[in-house]
Every structure is written in structure tokens, then in C-alpha cells.
Amino acid sequence: MTMDYFTTAMVCGVLIGVLCGLVGVLVVLRRRAFFTVALTHATFPGGVLAAILGVNVVLGAGVMGLALMALMVWLSRIHRQGSQVAAGVVLSLGYALGMLLLSLNPWLPVKVDSFLAGHILAIPVSNVVIIAVVLGVTVLAYVAYGKELLFSTFDRRGFVASGHRESSADVVALGLITLTVVAVMPAIGSILAIAMIAAPAASARLLTKRVGRMLVIACLLGAVAAVGGLVISRYLGFAAGGAIAIAATLVFLISLAIRTIRSRSVASSGGARGRVSAIPAPPVEVTAR
């Protein structure tokens, strides 16, 4: 049975939402948001180069993403250079290289916005399958290595002291982030991918402190943002990739509002209890017999 274009986009959106939710929690907890932004830009020239060579865009983006990820890791280990500096250098390099390749090949039948914002409404089934495979790999990674990832995230010194190698956890985390960015690029673009990776996970972190619940909530919010963005795009005529990114941002703002209201409610109830306890007890009357 063949699905129509919108049904295919909806299935793709749900898969992207769940995948970005799982990986986004790693990004948020390990503070790799800027690294992910740089990586989204790093896949851009790979996609353009793949179009020039006539090969699959995902393949080109993956190879370029892995190469620039290795460059970021190497730069971050240079004395007095941190990961933020490395990510900033690669971010600029990736975007500039992509624009350079496009300017040198004006005959390409693809437009810049197809790389930057994606084309989820025209996504082929083969790309949906790739996203599903990456989602499966991510789930398996959590099952097989999830405890180690969380251990290294919250206590790096303890992780190393217990006999583990910190680089192994970094490789797994960065590998999952790279696979996710590469897989979702054809659907939601290399630039807008960061919205789906960061916003649902950041929203989940506002709503709960438990990692297990955080993963579930991030996946649900990611799927809601993707489906909501597609519905908005269809009925209001917005660009699908941009609508999904806006929906993800709205999800974050709503979560922030819920967190703020909840915090004020707890603070006010705590203050009321404090005021009641501060009221002096009535004097004890001693009646003489």
C-alpha cells in the first residue's frame, strides 16, 4: 500500500520527533548544544558535494559530518582551546564551504533552502527508512550503553576513576548526534535540525528531573512538535521545515510557562505555610483554683 505525500511526511515527522527527543536529552545534559549547531552546519557542504557528484545526499552529509566532527574533537584538545572555540571554527567553515560549493556550481538543480530547511513534504520513502534505522540504532545504544552514558554525563571523574575511558562515552554520544543530524537533514534541513534536537529535550528538562521521564517526555514533545508543524504548514501555507521549528519553539515556551507557574505556586504555598508558623501561639491561660 502506497502512502500519499502527507501521510509519509507525518510518519517521517513522528520518527524525527522521537529520534531527536532521545538524542536531544544527551545534547542538553552533556551541554553539547553549540557542538550540535556546528555539526548541522558541517553537514551542509556534504549535501552540496553529494549533489554535485550525483550520490545520495545523506551519504555526502554523513561523510562530511564525520570528518568535521573529528576536526572539532581534535581542535578542542589543543592547549587553551575549548570545545566552544572548536565548534565555532567548524560552524563557520562548514557554512562557508557549502556556500562556496554552491556558488561554484550554479547549474545545480537544487536550491539552498532545500539544504537549510529541508523538504519533508517531498521526502522519499528511502529517507524515512534511514531515519527509522538511525532511531533503532539509538535505542540499541541506550539499551546497551545508557548507564555508562549517564554515568559519564553526571560524574566524569567518577566514570574515569571506575576504570572507564571518557573518550568511549564521548564517541558514542557524538556518534549518535552526528547520525541524527545527518538522517534528519533531508527532511528538516541542516539549520533547522537544531530546533528539533534541542527544544523538546530542553522542554522535558523543565518539566522533570528524572532522566527516564525526561526521555519519554522529550520523545512525545518532539512528535507533537513535528505533527503540529506539519498541520500548521498544510492549513496555513507555511514552509513545513520552518513551521516544525516554530512548533518546537512554542513547545519550549509552553513548558517554560508551566515550570514558572508551578514554581510560583510552590513558592506561594511555602510562603503561606511559613507565615502560618510565624503567628505566635495564643498565651496559655492558667486558671487558679
UniProtKB/TrEMBL annotation:
How the protein sits in the membrane?
Multi-pass membrane protein
Task: From the UniProt record, give one GO term of the biological process aspect.
Answer: transmembrane transport
Give the record's keywords alphabetically: Membrane, Transmembrane, Transmembrane helix, Transport
Q: Is Membrane set as a keyword in this record? A: yes
Q: Where are the transmembrane segments?
A: 6-29, 49-74, 86-108, 120-145, 171-199, 211-232, 238-258
Q: Pfam families, per this entry? A: ABC-3 (PF00950)
Q: Where in the cell is it found?
A: Cell membrane; Membrane
Gene Ontology CC annotations of this record:
ATP-binding cassette (ABC) transporter complex
Report which residue ranges the record marks as coiled coil: none
Q: Which domain of life is it from?
A: Bacteria
Where is it mostly found?
membrane
Keyword Methyltransferase among record annotations: no
- Similarity section: Belongs to the ABC-3 integral membrane protein family.
* Protein name per UniProt: Metal ABC transporter permease
- Organism, by scientific name, is Pseudoclavibacter endophyticus
